[in-house]
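User: Hi! Is it possible to get a structure for several chains at once, not just one? Here's what I have:
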Amino acid sequence: MPESIFRPFRHSDAERSDRTAGDRLRHRQKIRESIRENIADIIAEESIIGKSRDRVIKVPIRGVREYRFVYGDNVPGVGQGDGSSQPGQVVGKARGQGQGPGGDRAGDRPGLDYYETDVTLEELIDIMFEDLDLPDLERKALRQMEALRTSKRRGYRSVGIRIRLDKHRTVKARVKRKLAARRHHGATLPAAATVPGAAAARDAAPAAEPAFDAAQAAEPAFDAAPGAEPAFEAAPGAEARTDGGATARAAPAGRFPFHPDDLVYRHVTTEMRRESNAVVICIMDTSGSMDTMKKYLARSFFFLLYRFICTKYRSVEIVFISHSTEAHEVSEEEFFHKGESGGTFISSGYQRALDIVAERYHPSLWNVYAFHCSDGDNFDADNAAALRAAGELASLCNLFGYGEIKPLGSRYYESSMLNLFRRLDAENFQTVLIERKEDIWPSFKAFLAKEREKD
Amino acid sequence: MASWDLKDLEYWDARIREQVEALGLDCYPQEFELCNHNEMLAYTAYSGMPAHYPHWSYGKAFEKLKTLYDYGVSGLPYEMVINSNPALAYLMRDNSLCLQILTIAHVYGHNDFFKRNFTFTSTRADFTIGTFKAHAERVRRYVEDPSIGAERVETILDAAHALSLQRRRNLAVRKLGEEETRERLVAAAQPPPDPFHRLHRRPAYVEPDLQKVPPEPEEDILLFVRDHNPYLASWERDLLTIVDEEARYFIPQIETKIMNEGWASWVHREILNAIELPQALHLEFLVRHNQVVRPIPGGLNPYHLGLKVWTDLKRRHDAPTPEELAEHGRPAKGGMAKLLEVRETDRDVSFLRRHLTEDLMRELDLFAYEPRGDDLVVSRVADAEGWREVKEQLLRSVGMGTIPVIRIEDADFGHKRTLHLSHQHDGRDLHLENAERTLGYLHRLWGREVGLETVVSGKRTLLTCNERGFSAKTLK
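Assistant: Yes, the chains can be modeled jointly so their relative placement is included. Here is the combined structure:
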């Protein structure tokens, strides 16, 4: 038979070509699509509240399976035993449970193609909001506050980038040093000329690089001042210094080269000028009537909102208020994790929000967005105050949303603020009803969709 | 980097080839290409082909392989060899010298099998690489064509992949054209010659339905759709052709998995025992060899089963036991001649049926299992009463036996252009979710209603898929 051919490994080929790249990319896209389709379920199933954004979530993927005509779950087969097989012996789990006999054969049979993928919470949230058409108006408003950048001169520095070299001041610094050197030595100019050489020798070793700078800096100086000629020739001086000789080649008579200390740069700072700003106020009822389930729903809703805002808008301020009969401004951590008890004065939460707005976020400068979640089980006497405060808040806010958490059934015997708020006639006021965890995502979408309709 | 270079490989390859010739193997010219693990993963994902058309499923395969490899769940194949002339094999450069020698010897086993086994004669090995490359170029051209685009190509490929294995299995049998089939139907309808026709009543003539499409049930689903759906564009037909040709290329490998791997394992064992490896290499060889051909408890390792049958076959011809002599007489052929004959004329089903003996089954402790509740329970073991059934069970689950036979019965069912299929039920039910989705794909290609008659839990059932979606109804 003919000689066989051996083709050696070619490193370049292996590194250059990644033939699977395109197909892998398409596969990932399909996974993403699949996640997006199931997002409502994932949101409902996963307790994502307050989890770190790097947390990995296992998401079952169904969309990327390949289907064929195959035999069903429970077909008989043949296996090999260890020599002691007996009829009736159990050798494995039926495939419905995900394992064929032998245990390590998963994946070699169709039907086991069930697939889980890991996504981080952050990715998941990205995907979630990807297909959510954003409320344009809100986005515009929030975008506007994305500050105006201006550059302003703020004094001078001895270091900087070359384009900011202030030639005038650099030359002046050199002249000053020259005069000072002459006075110090009380000598004639040629003698003075050796001074920088000596000074340079002093910092010979560390100054190699600045010296190079000086040589470069000499160029702009060249066309800047009448004393340019010697400055230009600073370059050979610099060379001498990099050579490191203590007895550096003396500069020619009458020359007084630039020293790195002479260089002056303009200092520029960038300034954010806030044209308009946005603040989101999250108000949550943490009274005793808010049981675990209700709090869970409320927090899930806020969590989505919060993540949404964090994802889409870079600089937005968020205020968390939790209220029972009285309201407190709390940290993010407390807001999502702490429980409270007590009665309910919804007006207290609104009042607190109004105070904060008045204190820090004047509506003429800020876009204010307020969201409130409660079970609507308000203390009757407070209703009038709550309605009034809500009206007031709505007049200050760009959007004021109220989400009522009514786990299924409880709607019939508990009072509801939804009826009350129906009287509130403000265009920018929205209400939604959340009955179970599957509602969270749709109602969240509805919230933003309503906002969109408005434009 | 491993402690060997190309010179070593060439040296051992020369030694191995001497043995290949001594064994009487008949190989295509062989080419080896050294690659790193990433390339190996990529080759594995694309069935070893240097050029292959793009589809996301290969990206998926790659990711899966890579994940398993990265987490150490599974290693890489030591070797990958494709059925082409010249045969092309990949060697992983990180493998040890011993592993390379073992792999090279193993590759010659496959090479010989590809060249001589009858199932591979239809694969046109001379053109393999060129064909795959041409396919890749055609698909890429459609993808780049602005009037077609990646998405529409993917839509067709997804559907075609789902149905690609629903095709004729025995490629050694020539397929009749529609005209020929009709002629046969007419001939078959004639009454058989009867010397006593004067005495007998003339049998009623049943006129064959020559209008029916297809005249006889048809297994090549993709090709049938290609030829009978007039609304497909030419590029869509071409994609169906491409997918079908690839499936046809791979069917012999599915059909001979056990034989082929067993043969290559047998060959590498013979060769490595004959080339006088230095002791260190030889010991490593023993370890590696046993890793490859070890039995999987509860499962079935094709390397192990195949190797056992080949070894046993040779022994029965070279050194039959007195009982065997008494039962079958003196074998007509020597062991090696018999092996070379069998590797040419059998495929997994016939190979196991003929050469897997009762004794060997008992030695291997083969058992049949079936599901009972949540458990898989041993139903039969290879004892005197049970071994035949275990064997029947085994024969049903090797080669293309793992793919249900589904045939097109009528392309104009109820005169509504409904594509009517039937599943040749053999006691194993279809997986319904898969059946639903796959019918969906077929509906996409056919463009009209498709129906599949099958048996679900003992009841005849018609699964249909049309514009309104999927439905299943039990037939009387």
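The first helix of chain A runs from residue 11 to 16. The first strand of chain A starts at residue 5 and ends at 7.

User: Great, thank you!
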